## 1
Amino acid sequence: MRHLLPTLKELTRTDMHIYDESSVQEKLLPRPYTDSDINVTRPVFVRSGTGSAYLYCSFLDQPNLPDEKGLPSASSAKSTDPDPFPVTPSFFVPVPLISLSMELAQVIPLFSKSSVLIIKNDRDEWIGYITASDIMNSIHQAYRLMEAYLETTLETVGSALSLIDEEAKVAYWTSGAENIFSIRKTDIIGQPAANFFPPERLQSLKTLYSGESVYRKQHQPRSDLFALINARPVRLDGRIVGAVAAEVDITTEIRLHQELLHMSSKIQHLEKAVARLHPETDPFARIKGSSPIIRQCLETIRKISTTPATVLIMGESGTGKELFAKAIHDLREPETAPFIAINCGAIPASLFESELFGYEKGAFSGADPKGKKGKIELAEGGTLFLDEIGEMPFELQVKLLRVLQERSYFPVGGTRTKQANCRIIAATNQDLPAMITRNQFREDLYYRLNVINLIIPPLRLRKEDIYELTQTFLQEFSLLYNRHIEVIPPELFKHLFEYDWPGNVRELRNVIERLTILTMDGEIKPEYLPDSLTSAKVNVPSEPEQTVANLKSAGKEVAHDPNVTDSLQKSHGPDHLAAVAREAANPSVTFPEQSSGSSYQQQMDAYEARLLLQYLKAAGGNKRTLAKQLGISRATLYNRMNRLGI
């Protein structure tokens, strides 16, 4: 391969004469000559007694150097021979000895001592010599070939390739760069890159000064130009000596995408307007997720929606309790039925009664002269959603209890009862039984509300839904903030899946909104995540413990829920129902202890495998029955069992 530097063996010459030092003393050296037949001057080398090498020079253009190592000067030698030796000025030049195994980089500095080097083998035998002119010619030829190959390759790539040296001057500029940036090669090569582009927009300068490498990063070298860039520093002997960048013009694509985002935003606004006129037929459209635990919740909602019973929704803050309440309302009420929500923790105690029950005209000073309808009256024929029911003032709880019992109430300042013709759905993130023991919540109201209990799982127990939720929120906020999101790195999802999400879906939504706002170049970076998320550690034991608590609570509610009881008795029989209730209230599943040697996913897989084995045993080994009980297909069950090694 001629573009590579040659080896010493390839450059070795063997047309030489070698004599010992004794030949000099005895004047036996031949007269240097030029073989006119082959036009090659054969050098004469002398080996001293110590093994050193000397070149016998007899060229008219060489200076008369001093003798070395006591060797006599040939020009000063006295001879009575009729043909004196030699007739031209002559001298001896020390020649370095090199090994055939040496690298060319080690050999080149030795030419500062002599233009000829003698090569010896492993047995210290002189096998040839190399000259500085041969080295220079071979290096120059290899350089020309490499330059030709490189230039042809770079011009063939088609991207805009540029190279800046360590002085930040443009050293290379392809025709692709000329086409994209409209700057001729002859105008920019050798000039500082900052003379043509704003320094703060030059990724090549950042790479040169920081050593940062980027791949397919979106940037703007000019205000009117968008490009995808790959950039890497050029290093030599551990030092950055330049930076190379390859850029692809995506200005047209970005503008088209911005127009598409603008049109998508208009379409979204139109869809919202249409949705207000024609409500969504699917009540579960806004509930995102396909995990088994979410599918179980949706199945429970379908059962609940067949009755007008009061529902108590329990779940941590941020789990989306109002979405589930709205789904229940949409399933069991007509399209025109109102859905009235009131946050019991957001209204002062002094105003809560008038907000809930309304008031008659003249009920108190400052009141509307015409009176005001309360939330219960506004919800007539529909649903009243009491969010954060645990925050309701204790003295008003008895009045709400009367509404639930008698389905009637008195407005503030009123003397005639009004009928409460609405369904009640309450929600809380608090432990109501514990509040009852502290005399903070009425026990009788709790039992009136807790006709049917729906537990919304926290996000940490349904992490398989994080991907779908993330994509939904990204689409929403990219349209809202006019951001083009092109790349979502896998390490970002790694952080999302490892986090415990104490704020649940609301916290995830806020994080995705933050990421969308901070992303300006189309690529979401993990460093955009909040510190609280990247530095948090996964608390593995807490999740199973919370799951046990939820199972116990859910098991007790299922056992006392007449609607669910009837359904289970019809499908599985009373014995199966009793077994489910006992198992839920006293689960025998043991959860893995946290181990420093196993990952979070390994521990969760071990737990899931044990849980599946337990339920498979309860189903008598019948996988079809188990799949039906879990609400999944047999193929999904088989795949999951194979993944878990069951």
## 2
Amino acid sequence: MPKALSAHGSTQVTSQGTYNITVDPVRINTGDFQKMGVGYNRSQIPTILRFKEGEEVTINVTNNLSESTSIHWHGLIVPFRQDGVPGISFNGIAPGQTFTYRFPIQQAGTYWFHSHSGLQEPDGAYGAIVIEPRGRERIPAHRDYVVQLADKHPHPGNRILRNLKMQSDYYNRSQRTFQDLIRDARMDGLKATLKERRMWGRMRMLPSDVEDVQGFTSLINGRSTSQNWTGLFRPGEKVRLRIINSSAMTYFDMRIPGLKMVVVQADGNDVEPVAVDELRVAVAETYDVIVQPTQNKVYSIIAESMGRNGLVRGTLSPREGYAGAVPRLRPKPLLTMADMSGMMGGMGMDMGMGMGDHVMQNMTGMNHTDMTGMDHSNMQSSQQPPMPAMTPSEEKPKKKTSMAGMDHTQMQKPAMDGMDHTQMQQKKKAPMSGMNHAQMQKPAMDGMSGMDSMSGMAMSDGGDPFYVPGSGLTPVAYNGGKFLSYADLRAASPRYRHRAPSRTIVLRLTGNMERYIWSINDVKYDDAAPITLRYGERVRMRFINETMMSHPMHLHGMWSIIDAGHGPRNPIKHTVNINPAATTDIEVEADAPGQWAFHCHLSYHARAGMFRKVVVKGRAA
């Protein structure tokens, strides 16, 4: 079992607790391969920190590595100096040094912690946090297990990034073959097949680019399928599974064949219970589910990658020594022209359109090899004092070049970090702030009556509204049953007074897959000004995904309230997944003064520039 750290000297409820963590080089054994990596408390098995709501914690972190390290408390509301991001909230922890974190525990639920230095997190520096509520759990269970997922690769993180920068499809083991061409020509006709191939070629993309990094071994609590993590139960008991996706790059689809999962918590916040057969866990998200096995039999906990490139099986068993069945991987999904539509500037999906009108900035001439990634202490932008919001002209990339074969001169888009768009004149086709979603005609959606607004795309094809219609990534449950959507999540109780946002900030998620450059509003982190918020304001952030990848966006220090159409009951999360070509709105209460990181939580996307600093001004930090 994962090792749990509790307050020293007492197992009772206390007002103060002290915890010790060491950061160590460790040998990682997945059963498929062995490698050196990073771990906590000298183990590849994730440490579990168990806190109590209302506790004042002291955490001593000793760095036994030969390089600087840090720990970020993912999803915890802490003072910004305790947030653990080098270059933004502190200087990091030097080799051989001990840094002491101190902060109050103001919440309950399931969270996690990880290094925010370099690529130590994908190399193994992650653990779990379980916070016991002051009273009892809203929905109690007889047993309680952490299910922490990871994607362990034989290559170290720095080598993976170097290979991706050299050749973006370096790790793509799912590229189409001549046999695929013959098959598709028989199904769709040779002319249509060749036209589709030309389209993808012009975009310098592959429809199989669902997961940037393949060849990984999936883990549950540091164990692979052959190592068989097991949770015990007695028939009839309710079992709480705290699912945490700590992967570097991999989304996991979770199922337990033969059991319904009742989702009771998302990113540490209680939601109205919803029974599902399967759910997708984006990188950095957490979900608590309750299952109730009634039979005296073994059940398989299956976490299958979204791209169907790997899976891990854990076991729920009435006794030790048993292992659940391991299913075959399901067919691999392919991205579609619908997923490509975000890259086309919202021009529609006419296959005869001039591809020269597509906008995607290459930021060539910029040196990405010197970025310290998630360790920002050496970046110029992290040394600058908080700056006011920039105008579009002030944040344009310094240099733009066109992709081969594409004319970018027709559609220039300004960078818009921190812009207040509420007064802008709006065009009909572009997703814009200030739009009254309540007046938009929407098709009827099962289980979503009473909606007053809805971000994301309409369910015109009967699918999930947070995917574009026709997306190749729209999930389908293994048994044809219920697959969880953000639209199903309703907060059990409102955290904030429901009010209109004062302004909208548009954040276009941009990049160039061929050169492996990732950015926001076409500007990578080390060229970007901070996003400035005023303390006490409520801000709407509109994500427009102009790439063909999913991006789990994580704002440190403040909650992200997803516009799922439930008004004051919209779900409250710390990480929000934005699917290809989709537009998704969140609202943020700027109630945490200081400087905060805001980034895509795919490790190599953040390292390659999809990152911002957010500054909350207006009250002494």
